[in-house]
């Protein structure tokens, strides 16, 4: 069975973005970007992979990305209809128009049911690109977390997951720190 991994950046106070979707406050250094871009090259947007010369690199960890409308819309606003062209892309939305890309599947039904179907298929892992509403809906399906904890407090914003009070436990597998003060924490679900 394939695993669903939620890979996300958060502030010290647990927000993935500011109240108006701001993310420009995250400190990213070239060394940090290079390390994560190399380790997680599968989930770099296609234009970033192209800039790194990795367009033809084989996928090693993920072959599918799932996201909600709010995560997909910035690409559409920039004229990009398939931001992760190296991955099978599944977008959950009841309001978006179909972008007309053969690699992009627009799902208007239950995200949990569709993700369970994806997990039962053969292949590499599934990357949950966000955001908070979808992560909350899919919380019981998340097998792994990769959390980039940045050294900044913002006070308000979008939480890592929006859901009812429901303590969900994960085991810490790895901790790494970087030159920008970011700590990357990797967790697996306790079953």
Word description of this protein:
- The chain is built from five helices and ten strands; from the N terminus they run ββααβαββαβαββββ.
- With 191 residues, it is α/β, with parallel strands linked by helices.
- The chain has an eight-stranded mixed sheet. The chain has a two-stranded antiparallel ribbon with strand order 2-8.
- The radius of gyration is 16 Å and the shape is globular.
- The relative contact order is 0.25.
- The mean pLDDT is 94.
Write the topology of this structure.
Elements: E1 4-10, E2 15-17, H1 30-39, H2 46-51, E3 62-68, H3 69-77, E4 88-92, E5 104-107, H4 111-120, E6 125-130, H5 132-137, E7 144-149, E8 158-159, E9 170-177, E10 183-189
Parallel strand pairs: 1-6, 1-7, 3-4, 3-6, 4-5
Antiparallel strand pairs: 2-8, 7-10, 9-10
Features:
Dihydrofolate Reductase, subunit A, two-stranded antiparallel ribbon, 5 helices, Riboflavin_Biosynth_HTPR, Dihydrofolate reductase, eight-stranded mixed beta sheet, alpha/beta, 191 residues
| Low-pLDDT ranges | none
Count of distinct structural domains:
1
Beta-strand share of residues: 25-35%
Number of helices: 5
Please state the structural category. alpha/beta
CATH class: Alpha Beta
Please report the distance between the alpha carbons of the first and last residues. Answer: 15 Å
CATH architecture: 3-Layer(aba) Sandwich
- What level of helicity do the residues show? 10-25%
Overall body shape:
globular
**CATH superfamily caption:** Dihydrofolate Reductase, subunit A
The name CATH uses for the topology is: Dihydrofolate Reductase, subunit A
Q: Strand order within the widest sheet?
A: 5-4-3-6-1-7-10-9
The largest sheet, given as strand count, sense and whether it forms a barrel, is: 8 strands, mixed
What's the number of extended β-strand segments?
A: 10
Q: From the alpha carbons, calculate the radius of gyration and give it in angstroms.
A: 16 Å
Mean residue pLDDT = 94
H-E order: EEHHEHEEHEHEEEE
């Amino acid at each position: 069975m394939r695993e669903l991994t939620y890979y996300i950046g958060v502030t010290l106070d647990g927000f993935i973005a500011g109240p108006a979707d701001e993310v420009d406050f995250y400190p990213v250094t070239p060394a940090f970007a290079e390390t994560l871009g190399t380790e997680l090259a599968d989930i770099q947007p296609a234009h970033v992979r192209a800039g790194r010369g990795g367009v033809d690199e084989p996928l090693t960890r993920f072959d599918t990305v799932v996201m909600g409308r709010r995560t997909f819309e910035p690409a559409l606003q920039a004229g990009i209809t398939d931001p992760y062209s190296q991955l099978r892309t599944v977008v959950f939305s009841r309001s978006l128009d179909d972008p007309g890309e053969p690699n992009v599947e627009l799902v208007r039904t239950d995200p949990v049911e569709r993700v369970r179907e994806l997990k039962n298929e053969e292949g590499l892992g599934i990357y949950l690109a966000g955001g908070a509403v979808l992560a909350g809906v899919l919380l019981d399906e998340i097998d792994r977390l990769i959390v980039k904890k940045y050294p900044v407090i913002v006070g308000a914003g979008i939480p890592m997951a929006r859901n009812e009070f429901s303590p969900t436990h994960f085991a810490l597998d790895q901790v790494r720190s970087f030159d920008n003060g970011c700590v990357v924490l990797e967790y697996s679900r306790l079953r």
